[in-house]
Amino acid sequence: MIRLKNEKQIAGIRESCHLLADLYKWLIPQIQAGMSTRDIDDLCVDFITKHGGKPAWYNEGFDGAACISVNDAVIHGVPSKKFKIHEGDIVSLDIGIDLNGYISDSAVTIPVGKVSSEAERLMQVTKECLAAGIAACKVGNRIKDISKAVYEVASKAGFGVVHEFCGHGVGLEVHEDPSIPNVPSSGSNPRIQAGMVLAIEPMINLGTGDVCILDDDWTIVTADGKLSAHEEHTVAVFQDHTEILTLR
User: Fold this and answer.
1) What is the DSSP letter of 104?
2) How far apart are CA 181 and CA 114, in angstroms?
3) How far apart are the first and last CA of the chain?
4) Burial of residue 22 (number of CB atoms within 10 Å: 0-12, 13-18, 19+)
5) Of the candidates 12, 6, 14, the residue with the CA atom closest to the CA atom of residue 195
6) Average pLDDT, the chain
7) pLDDT (tens digit, 9 = 90+) per residue, 188-244?
8) DSSP 8-state class, residue 36
């Protein structure tokens, strides 16, 4: 069931999203080669708790405030003291905050130092996929208009689009209806309505769109070992516009 949010609920979600945007602005400049992914996660936990929130992923049983997915890892990378970040890596951060019961969700892929030209292009196209998806997210369109917009940008660039995982409703819980695939497919295709709060999140791969899950039962990696990038914003749909709540 799709839960349309009222004005009070959107205000609470917006506050959570603004805190998440502030976290990213503070966090990203601190990430550098030599840090472990757990070091990054510790920074997230400190920031979130000091500002009165709690990591939203704890609600899902995940061992971290941030999913930290490096290079060929697509999503759900589990923070670890043993996993070090290196020069030339690309790092996807996916973070959510539960602030007074209101959930925010956003992801970004960043370079560590100088990265390859193909990594730069992948990150840029993934940003363009997100922008296209958000542009299609407006009253009167359908969810698959978002899927089609994302897929067309990625396909034109020659990249694979992850089809096994997708965006979703958000705000009062971490994952709500509707699902928002990044690939046009069969199945339900609800009309976009005012009051929807959605997490739109393209996951774009340098090679195949196929993925595998690692033995930790969380980390998703590309099936061919090539790079992946992930971008996500939480947006609120109004009758005459769509607001990016997690805009940095």
Assistant:
1) E
2) 32
3) 30
4) middle
5) 6
6) 98
7) 899 999 999 999 999 999 999 999 999 999 999 999 999 999 999 999 999 999 999
8) B
Q: Give the whole-angstrom CA distance, residue 222 versus residue 207.
A: 8
| Alpha-carbon gap, residue 222 to 208, rounded angstroms | 7
- CB burial of residue 217 (10 Å; 0-12, 13-18, 19+): exposed
pLDDT in tens, 7-66: 999 999 999 999 999 999 999 999 999 999 999 999 999 999 999 999 999 989 999 999
Contact 231, 108 (CB under 8 A): yes
pLDDT for 127-149, tens place per residue?
999 999 999 999 999 999 999 99
Best CA proximity match to 125, nearest among 70, 219, 133: 133
Q: What is the pTM of this model?
A: 0.97
Q: What angle do CA 38, 209, 105 make, to 5 degrees?
A: 45
User: Phi and psi at residue 195, in whole multiples of 5°?
Assistant: 100, -15
Range 154-191 burial, b when 16+ CB lie within 10 A, else e:
beeeebbbbbebbbbbbbebbebebbbbbbbeeeeeee
Measured distance CA(226)–CA(245) in Å, rounded: 31
